[in-house]
Amino acid sequence: MLRSLGNEPPILADGRRAPDRREVSIRWLSGTFLTGITSSILMGVALFAALDGRQQLAIPAEAYAMSDSGKHDSAEDQVTRGGRLVPTAIASKPSDRNVLEVSTVVRDGDKEVVRRQPFAHVKIALATKRVATESYPAFDPLAIFSADENIQPAANRTGAIYGSDVESEVSLKTVPFPAKDVPFALAGSMSLDEVEANVRSNGSVLIDGNTQLSALYYVDPRRFATDDTDVDLTAGLAARIVEENMSVSAPEAVTPQTQEFADDIIPVREDTPITTALINAGYLKADAGDIAAKIEPLFGSSDLSAGDVLRIGILQKGEQAKIIRASIYRGTKHVLTVAENDHGDFVAGSEPPMLDAIATAFDNDAPITAAGRDLPSVYDGIYRAALSYGMTQEMVAQIIKLLASNVDFQAQLKPTDSLEAFFSVADENGQATADSELLYVNAKFGDTVTRFYRFEDPDDHSIDYFDESGKSIRQFLLRNPVPTGIFKSGFGMRRHPILGFARMHTGVDWAAPRGTPIIAAGNGIVEKAGWDSGGFGNQTLIRHANGYVSSYNHQSAIVKGIVPGAKVVQGQVIGFIGSTGLATGPHLHYELIVNGTKVDPLRIRLPGGKTLDGDALAKFEEERKRIDTLLSDDKSKQVASKD
């Protein structure tokens, strides 16, 4: 039976009345209003904190690629809560000088001594304004090519780069294993009980890191069990305890395409436009102009003042680099920052975290790049730069001699010319001494790159410098035996100036004042030194290796000691310019004879110097790879250093 509920008003008691649905509760309205305001404020504060005040700017990810994922046990790699996983990186511009502690091995009698020695690695931009810190010899081409046969080769004080690092001096002695008449008493064979005792005592430590060796499982664990203890197959296995609320992630493999962020610190040493400062620092002209155009409206000027510091934020990926932020500091005081936002536009930004490199930007006092018209000659540039970087005059002279066949020292330096060297030093100050030795040179002049390594041939213990393929950097024969001479006549048919008819000119004429020294084109043995009745006057013939003979004619005099059978070395003075025989003026008629045939000395393809092969080449390859790896590691370490 259904009963109607009716529509009567509710029954009220105690004087209360029914609520009016049209009324509004002031208490409820106030509470709702306050709750909304509080929620909005909290959300705004949280959003502001999350963006760290950068309402419009995207925060660039810092480069994990700068970390060394292979070193997890050092104190520097321990991660603490609240700390940065990766410190801010400085742009990959290696500092121009670094002193390394390197382990080398030197033979001392029948022993090999391994010790740590300091070496300096320098990379020098030659096109800079430098004042000579000390006097050096003036350019003399004869001195560059000359050689003194009485000078003995230097002893190998540095030795070879050792493959492993040592903490102190170590002596190694290698003796042949005594196959006969063994002086040691032979131990008897182990009994079965002794074998079991060894397995029982050592079985539990047969591990490889945190993993038990699989070979141990081929042994029955109960085979060597005792009543007290068993062989513990899990001994040595490590457990890793992870703190609560801590995330553990595997490191990302670093590849050439890994994206990384870096800061490039550019000190401004003289008033200069922003664009020029960026171009001088190595940026493309288009990129420099674009970022300068973004800075100028906010900075109010297109020029930087001496003492300013320009900080460029770079996002690098492989060979590509993109500018995403630029800041200007006046000393250490922040003046301006522009950065790229999420839309790719550059807008004003807040000051990025301070770097120590900004305060020390002028500490190295690097020289200012000079304009092309103000650059010195190659010869002066090498001497001034190398001496200012701690090399000795003897070491620089050695570099000059080694580069003489490939470099024009009287030419003017180019802005891109550079010199990289690796040499032993006395201490951490990086200053070379008389005992220092040059191990590696990489010279770039224009489009010509010359790279060579020092190596001691184990067969004859001779020390020389070789290129990457093991060929001596020294020329087999010089094409011009008169370094100061002027080319006058080439190889080929011509009208003889005295005889008056055409005849074959079988050599090359180099003119110079009477008495100018003539040097030997290469190492060899004198075959003839005296008067030639055929019109060549005073003539010297030198026989070289592999069928090569060089001929020097019309000399005014022959040096004492240059007689048949005498040994000469490349660059040794053998005579003087003259006009003896059928000659109209003082000059040298230079001929090159190969297997009895006269050839053009300027056009023939001459063989190189000594070439390593066999075991010597294999050892050279090992030494070269050690040096390359060492310098490559040095560069990678410098990427994150503060210049």
TrEMBL record:
<keyword id="KW-0812">Transmembrane</keyword>
<feature type="domain" description="M23ase beta-sheet core">
    <location>
        <begin position="503"/>
        <end position="601"/>
    </location>
</feature>
<keyword id="KW-1133">Transmembrane helix</keyword>
<dbReference type="InterPro" id="IPR050570">
    <property type="entry name" value="Cell_wall_metabolism_enzyme"/>
</dbReference>
<keyword id="KW-0479">Metal-binding</keyword>
<dbReference type="GO" id="GO:0006508">
    <property type="term" value="P:proteolysis"/>
</dbReference>
<feature type="transmembrane region" description="Helical">
    <location>
        <begin position="26"/>
        <end position="51"/>
    </location>
</feature>
<keyword id="KW-0645">Protease</keyword>
<keyword id="KW-0862">Zinc</keyword>
<protein>
    <submittedName>
        <fullName>Murein DD-endopeptidase MepM/ murein hydrolase activator NlpD</fullName>
    </submittedName>
</protein>
<keyword id="KW-0482">Metalloprotease</keyword>
<dbReference type="GO" id="GO:0004222">
    <property type="term" value="F:metalloendopeptidase activity"/>
</dbReference>
<dbReference type="InterPro" id="IPR016047">
    <property type="entry name" value="M23ase_b-sheet_dom"/>
</dbReference>
<keyword id="KW-0378">Hydrolase</keyword>
<dbReference type="InterPro" id="IPR011055">
    <property type="entry name" value="Dup_hybrid_motif"/>
</dbReference>
<keyword id="KW-0472">Membrane</keyword>
<dbReference type="GO" id="GO:0046872">
    <property type="term" value="F:metal ion binding"/>
</dbReference>
<dbReference type="Pfam" id="PF01551">
    <property type="entry name" value="Peptidase_M23"/>
</dbReference>
